[in-house]
Each structure stands twice: as structure tokens, then as C-alpha cells.
Specification:
binds ligand B30; mainly beta; single chain; 3-stranded mixed β-sheet; about 10% helix; binds zinc ion
Length: about 260
């Protein structure tokens, strides 16, 4: 594991990432604030083609890696971007807030609004033989992101199994196994409309090789589910893992496009 970068504590907090990881002060960083007024509608952006995202049998490893909960995904899951590039899924993980019941923790914001939490489904360009190889390539990665919101009309049962397993991975390095997974159900009902831009990993080494797709629609979780997500796992300091999101970065001269008019 890389050196001990953090979000807010110690010598390598997020303002000091560039000292060890110079790319973190680059001109195409993520996350960003998505300003709806300034997003360009591009009718040639087709829907994302998500294959193998539906119900899958088998065992899926879920780990507390010290800065998030991460589920390993099978290479049978693919996303094809509107430019025709095919990506293979590698892992999914979450960012959240929760330091108090009022604190949201999404990475992307919409018109300055931070959501409760954010899902990242991390993919690599299928033309490379592995995630490891693709990581250092300029066209290596794509992340499909969805924003999570509180909605108290009962729990979101598509998240029940995942949330129940958090108790098994309280400490960094611990892992557990999900039997069966349906990522499509864990996404917003409408997973066709998105914002798209070119950015980076939101953690060190902040590599600027990520094609971002942030879904326009949101994932609803009940407040009890969000509480469990926010309070079940601890970090390397044995403190509840809270507020592991990066502040928004300058857009500089990048365009954000959407396929929702
Ligand atoms: S994100 O989706 O932009 N938040 C990585 C992948 C996706 C994002 C951020 C980072 C990534 O692959 N990082 C390098 C690998 N990590 C290992 C790990 O899985 O988690 C090395 C590390 O951080 O130093 Cu801990
Ligand atoms: Zn992430």
C-alpha cells in the first residue's frame, strides 16, 4: 500500500498530496463541481452500454482497505462509452461523510450541493490486459459514478446484503464474501443519463487518465442504511471512517457534457 496519505490528518493531508504525488496538483483533477448551467448538451452522446451488470452468481470479495469499502468485480462486467471504447470493471467503492449526522460526503457536487455519499465503479480500458497495466496509460481508466441521497420510504433492499456485510470488515485489511451481486439494481433506476468529463483518480496518485461518467439520477438509501454505511468501519487509527472525500478541484479549461437535454 502507498505511503500514508490522509484527507485531514497528519503530514500528508489532502493539501499536501502534491508533495509526494505531483500529479495531484495537475490541471485535470477530480472531483469537480458540476454546474448544470454550464454543462454542454451533446446529442451524439449515446447511453452507456452496461453488460454483465445485472444479477451475477458467484463470490465477490469485499474489503476494508483503510480508506473505503471496496468490492472486487469480475472481468465479465463491461461498459462501452459513447466513443466506442470498451472498459472492463475492476472494483467498486464508496465515499461518504458522516462525521456528524449533518455532514454529506459525495466527491462530485451538483451546483455546489454535496450529496450524502457517492459510488464509484472503476473500470480499465479493455484493450489493456489488466488494471495494473492500464493504470499508467493515458486512456487507461473510466469511472461510473452515482450520487446517493436519503429517501425514507423504507429501505433500499438492493443494498441490504452489502450493508449487512459491513460488520464483517470493521478493521482495515479485513475481508468478507458476498454470494451474488446485482450492480444494475444498486444504480439509479435511470442509468442512461450522465455528465461526462476528463479527470483523474480522486486519491493519490491522482493520475489524469480517467473518463468520468456521473449519472444524473440518484440512488436512494434510507437514513438507517446511511447510518450503517457511515458508522460500521474504522480506519488505521481505529477511528470510524468518516469524510473520505476530496474537495472539488478547478475545472480549468475542460468541458462537461451531458446526454440529458
Ligand atoms: S477513484 O474512483 O477516483 N476514487 C484508485 C482507483 C479509483 C479511484 C481512486 C484510486 C486506484 O486504483 N488507486 C491505486 C490503488 N490503491 C490501492 C487500493 O485499492 O486502495 C493504492 C493506494 O491507495 O495507495 Cu488504497
Ligand atoms: Zn472513488
Amino acid at each position: 500500500h502507498g505511503s500514508e496519505w490522509t484527507y485531514s490528518e497528519g503530514a500528508l493531508d489532502e493539501l499536501h498530496w502534491p508533495r509526494e504525488y505531483p500529479t495531484c496538483s495537475g490541471k485535470r483533477q477530480s472531483p469537480i463541481n458540476l454546474q448544470r448551467r454550464k454543462v454542454h448538451y451533446n446529442p451524439s452522446l449515446t447511453a452507456l452500454n452496461l453488460t454483465g451488470y445485472g444479477v451475477q452468481a458467484g463470490e465477490f470479495h469485499m474489503i476494508n482497505n483503510g480508506h473505503t469499502v471496496q468490492i472486487s468485480l469480475p472481468p465479465t462486467m463491461h461498459m462501452t462509452a459513447p466513443d466506442g471504447t470498451q472498459y472492463t470493471a475492476e472494483q467498486m467503492h464508496f465515499h461518504w461523510g458522516g462525521a456528524s449526522s449533518e455532514i454529506s460526503g459525495s466527491e462530485h457536487t451538483i451546483d455546489g450541493i454535496r450529496f450524502v455519499a457517492e459510488i464509484h465503479i472503476v473500470h480499465y480500458n479493455s484493450k489493456y490486459e489488466s488494471y495494473d497495466r492500464a493504470q499508467s496509460e493515458p486512456d487507461g481508466l473510466a469511472v461510473l459514478a452515482a450520487l446517493i441521497e436519503v429517501r425514507d420510504h423504507g429501505e433500499n433492499t438492493y443494498y441490504s446484503n452489502f450493508i449487512a456485510h459491513l460488520n464483517n470488515i470493521r478493521h482495515p485489511g479485513q475481508s468478507t464474501v458476498l454470494s451474488g451481486l446485482d450492480i444494475l439494481d444498486m444504480l439509479p433506476e435511470d442509468a442512461q443519463h450522465y455528465y461526462s468529463y476528463r479527470g483523474s483518480l480522486t486519491t493519490p496518485p491522482c493520475t489524469e487518465n480517467v473518463h468520468w461518467f456521473v449519472l444524473v439520477h440518484h440512488v436512494p438509501l434510507s437514513s438507517a442504511q446511511i447510518w450503517k454505511l457511515e458508522n460500521s468501519i474504522v480506519d488505521r487509527q481505529n477511528k470510524t471512517l468518516h469524510n473520505h472525500y476530496r474537495r472539488t478541484q478547478p475545472l480549468n479549461n475542460r468541458a462537461v457534457e451531458t446526454n440529458l437535454m
